[in-house]
Write a structure and sequence with these properties.
Blueprint lengths: L7 E10 L16 E11 L7 E6 L5 H17 L4 E4 L2 H18 L5 H13 L1 E4 L1 H8 L6 H7 L37 H13 L6 H16 L2 H8 L9
Parallel strand pairs: 1-4, 4-5
Antiparallel strand pairs: 1-2, 2-3
Helix pairs in contact: 1-2, 1-3, 2-3, 6-7
Length: about 240
């Protein structure tokens, strides 16, 4: 991928759980089981410079609100010069859901299949640079998390400490047992925090301290999930683990 004047794009989506029949087991790769909550998009003009970020939050529970997140994400990605985009597990998660959720949301909104078509065309057109498969191959694991890959290839990742934010919800208590009690925000926390965020938003409680804390914490977490992608890409090819 050419850099310099073209720069680099990166993005990462955060999702909440969609309503599904009780007899259906949750499948994170099924677009009918998740909904867009927010997206972090970033652009770096050249290697070594600070990327610019935009966090696109959903502003309601309706399909219109979800579709607006997708539309604004496409606006950002299509407005930048690069024809490729950096992700971590984007080929299996972010890009399929960008297309899938646009289609599902548009099915309930009259005359909005233009966004679904844009999403489909973007996914077909863009060169996806998914850093996860190469990281897994070098690390020798079937699944290497983003944090593990950054550690393996000596890329610093800022964490989002839970004790620095005052939520009116016990995040750790809602985690699957397998995710442990790590005192930092994790991807599995977003469905719970995102639902709480939207519930507060729906009753107009945007001035409530809990809403403000949620907004800042999720914003920080989303940014730290994208910023290191540029440095991780600079480490390629991943010939061997650094640490």
């Amino acid at each position: 991928m050419s850099t310099g004047t073209r720069g680099r794009l990166a993005f990462d989506i955060e999702t909440i759980n969609a309503d599904r029949p009780a007899n259906k087991e949750f499948d994170a790769q099924n677009s009918e089981h998740v909904e867009f909550f927010c997206v972090c998009v970033a652009h770096q003009t050249e290697p070594g410079t600070s990327p610019s970020y935009e966090i696109i939050f959903r502003d309601g529970k309706s399909p219109h609100a979800e579709l607006e997140v997708i539309e604004r994400t496409l606006d950002y990605l299509e407005a930048k010069p690069p024809e490729s985009v950096l992700t971590y597990n984007g080929d299996e998660f972010d890009l399929p859901h960008l297309e899938g959720r646009a289609r599902i949301a548009a099915e309930t909104i009259e005359n909005r299949f233009d966004v679904a078509q844009r999403a489909e065309e973007f996914v077909d057109r863009v060169e996806s640079i998914d850093l996860m498969p190469e990281a897994c191959e070098v690390c020798g694991d079937e699944y290497t998390s983003f944090e593990e890959a950054c550690e393996a290839f000596d890329v610093d990742v800022m964490r989002t400490p839970l004790d620095e934010y005052s939520f009116d919800i016990d995040v750790v208590a809602h985690r699957p047992t397998s995710k442990g009690i790590d005192p930092y925000m994790m991807g599995c926390d977003i469905p719970v925090l995102g639902e709480r965020y939207l519930n507060l938003l729906s009753v107009g409680a945007t001035d409530h301290p809990a809403f403000q804390e949620l907004h800042e914490a999720i914003k920080h977490y989303a940014t730290t999930d994208v910023g290191p992608l540029f440095e991780l890409d600079d480490r390629r090819p991943f010939n061997e683990k650094v640490v």
